Amino acid sequence: MKPSLQFRLSQHLTLTPQLQQSIRLLQLSTVELNQEIDRLLMENPALEREDADDTEAPAAPAAGSASSSVATEAAAPEADWSADSAANWRGTEDDEGEKNFTAPDTPTLRDHLHTQLSLTKLGPRDRGFVALLIDALDDDGYLTQNLEEIAALLPQEAEAAPEELSIALRHLQNFEPAGVGARSPAECLCLQLRNLPDDPVRVLALQIVEQHLELLASRDYAKLKNLTGASDDALRAAQRLIRALNPRPGAAFAKIETRYVIPDVIVRKVRNAWRASLNADAMPRLRINRLYAEIAAAARNGTGLSSQLQEARWLIKNVQQRFDTILRVSQAIVERQRHFLEHGEVAMRPLVLREIAETLSLHESTISRVTTQKYMATPRGTFELKYFFGSHVATEAGGAASSTAIRALIKQLVAAEDAKAPLSDARISQILGEQGIVVARRTIAKYRDALQIPAVNQRKAL
Predict the structure, then answer these.
(1) What pTM, to 2 d.p., does this model score?
(2) Is the Cβ–Cβ distance between 165 and 224 less than 8 Å?
């Protein structure tokens, strides 16, 4: 076959480095964005953050405008914290007058138990066995390994008889908090009940926990009365006592990691209309280093200066574009969910990503990136943008109700029900049907489970 030269025309999308960076910045949360910017600031000397005390820069544009999201080469001064914001922080000053913000140290569960162990009069061997059991506890204070398994972990020279570890466990179970060292929830509750003064209520509660805890959990009060011979009043008193116990005694010592959410957008009502504006505290203020720009302009010799300058300009533009897009999407959401802002969850309307994408002439994938890990502060709380999207259920009038609104209605109905005659899923479905909202019983059950509302037999009061 004779070789020949052929030309073929085709179209394909090429992701430039600038476009790749724009997409990556769009999907980052505010915290992740600032971490990324900190990394780029270290790598690129042409880029710098705007100083809060820069007095030579012109005044910032009006708050909430998209153009005010990122400073350019003629940068705007960074906004000061308000007194209210600063009042939320407290710290101690060091010798140089700088604030140090540190969380107070709280003892762990193991620290607390080892301190009690040091005050006992146990011998070295017994003390060692108790210490071994303390270290085997989980964060809730439970001993999840059986004693045989723990004994097998001991070195040969420290071999322990099963009764020695049992005695060590009894010592541990006498420590505070009550219930620590339990091997099951029932044992945990029993340990706490045995620490209480002896009276008829405590005796009945102990009998229920030791022998009939599953019946209490399933609220089978008729069978409980038959098996214990207790009256309704006695059962109620025992139930109140059991509910007052702590099934997770070690949880109070767990270190709680607080996750702070920085809202990207703030929603306010202005002249009877809901308006979204960018949160100035969430926006990094960047600019080109003026001295570096002057050196790069003078060099003109193909060094890396001009490429770093261009990358810095790209970043400033892409960060600004990120906030522009977040603001546009947020305002579109606000316009569709204004009834939620006025009346709460029950007024949430169905909304899908495609609806916002078509309104703003953006791709659905862009809307998905914008609404993930981006937060909106409203008079009703701070919500991830994804919160405002949800599936719909048909109504008899031919309209639709959002799944969020239906869940809110279920919560309202359960909160107002008669505890002695709680509403079944079928009855809730019937009540919503009477309001024109057609929801199947199994859908009610699914939403109820998602709300962590127990089934009807578990909500029934004695």
Answers:
(1) 0.57
(2) no
